[in-house]
Specification:
Number of helices: 18
Radius of gyration: 20 Å
Shape: globular
Strand content: under 5%
Oligomer: single chain
Distance between the termini: 26 Å
Number of strands: 0
Largest sheet: none
């Protein structure tokens, strides 16, 4: 392995750290882009194939079940073999998923898309955070986490615009074909700069004292016995439920409750993600300033977002104000993003980064999987207001769980 990973942090120039942040950011954006490969086409699938929202929600659930199961295991693979080969494999799977979507003729064909894309999505958090923690100087990790979060939101924000434009110009099938080309270009970029994605596997990276802790926190069973890990898992599960409602159902909800066009509703979803990215940028500075109370920062942001979501559900302020309130919800959640990642880092043994992040972030996939199943039934019943109120309630509960994480975290 190259010595660059082990170089003294004071010798790492900003340019080197920035390059790593940028590459990981592009990869993270592609991951979030994949979350919307199928949901953005739900209205088209309803019209063209006559499927119900509960059936379509199952596709999202399948994607995130595969991703969640794979993510928990991917952390061990990353720790054992390094992050780079896993990352490149994920990009290849995304290309296959898009090509399958282009050719799909049935519900079963779209299930294959969900499986391929879910497998591609599975390793991203253990991959990304392992690269960042090894390749970026510790004093700059707050900025790295901020860039990481912003790039994810930009991936979400790009997807509605990309698919709306491509589908309008060439049809929905060719929109998926265009997406496969986009993923191929990203894969080429990562291959060109592959030397900056090298990580040292855990056995080589850990010190002799750490290697003697086979039954400690760094071991597989050790991290499973850490209460803070499961509290972090629960936080990700709950907080993601609301995001899944926004991604999967915000467009038809806004259309049904306020008569807002599908195009304008899609742009609101993009605004949600863009304001979320702005919030993450601001949150990066807050995370650095209030590093000792990250749990409280996260909890306050979740409460604010829950209140905004509840106001969206009420519709008291009219259609246009509701659009802005929904977008501001993304801003509130975004501010808490970097503090959330630092909150997780506090409870992570240094020699088990991939494993802990893989397990904890699989809660995100579980939330994404459960939310469409539950709220897809709400949507089929026409309970649009209840869908938004339910999402707000779950987000409020997640604030309490964040405080629970803080009580159980032990600084390194």
């Amino acid at each position: 392995m190259q010595s660059v990973v082990l170089r003294d942090e004071s010798q790492r120039p900003w340019r080197e750290d920035a390059r790593v942040m940028g590459l990981v950011g592009v990869a993270h954006a592609s991951s979030h882009f994949s979350h919307l490969l199928l949901p953005l086409m739900f209205p088209v699938f309803v019209q063209e194939f006559g499927w119900r929202y509960a059936e379509l929600g199952m596709l999202s659930s399948l994607f995130f079940v595969i991703s969640g199961l794979g993510q928990a295991g991917a952390g061990f693979v990353v720790d054992r073999w390094g992050a780079r080969p896993v990352l490149l494999t994920s990009m290849a799977l995304y290309i296959l998923a898009c090509l399958q979507a282009y050719a799909a003729q049935s519900y079963a064909g779209l299930m294959v898309v969900a499986v391929l894309a879910g497998l591609g999505n599975a390793p991203f958090h253990p991959v990304n955070f392992t690269i960042l923690n090894q390749r970026v100087s510790t004093p700059r990790l707050g900025y790295a986490f901020s860039v990481h979060g912003v790039s994810g939101n930009l991936g979400w924000a790009l997807a509605p615009v990309f698919f709306s434009v491509c589908a309008a110009w060439w049809g929905w099938r060719h929109a998926f074909l265009a997406a496969s080309v986009l993923y191929a270009l990203i894969l080429v970029l990562l291959l060109i700069h592959r030397q900056h994605l090298v990580t040292i596997p855990a056995p080589a990276a850990s010190s002799p004292s750490m290697r003697g802790r086979g039954s400690g926190q760094g071991s597989a069973l050790g991290i499973l016995r850490m209460p803070v890990v499961w509290w972090c898992f629960l936080f990700f599960l709950l907080s993601t439920v609301t995001l899944a409602v926004v991604q999967n159902f915000a467009v038809p909800i806004l259309n049904a409750l306020h008569g807002i066009s599908l195009e304008q509703a899609s742009m609101t979803l993009t605004a949600y993600m863009l304001l979320g990215a702005v919030g993450i940028l601001i949150g990066g500075f807050l995370a650095a300033r209030f590093a000792q109370v990250t749990d409280r920062v996260v909890a306050l942001c979740m409460v604010a977002a829950a209140l905004l979501m509840a106001l969206c559900a009420s519709g008291w302020l009219g259609p246009q104000a509701t659009l802005w309130l929904l977008a501001l919800t993304g801003f509130a959640v975004g501010i808490g993003g970097p503090s959330r990642d630092l909150m997780i880092k506090k409870g992570t043994p240094k020699e088990a980064t991939g494993r802990v992040y893989g397990l904890v972030y699989s809660g995100l996939d579980v939330g994404f999987a459960l939310s469409p199943l539950v709220f897809g039934l709400f949507m089929d019943q026409g309970w649009y207001t209840a869908t938004l109120l339910g999402a707000a309630l779950v987000l409020f509960i997640s604030a309490g769980v964040a405080l629970g994480v803080g009580q159980r975290s032990v600084p390194h």
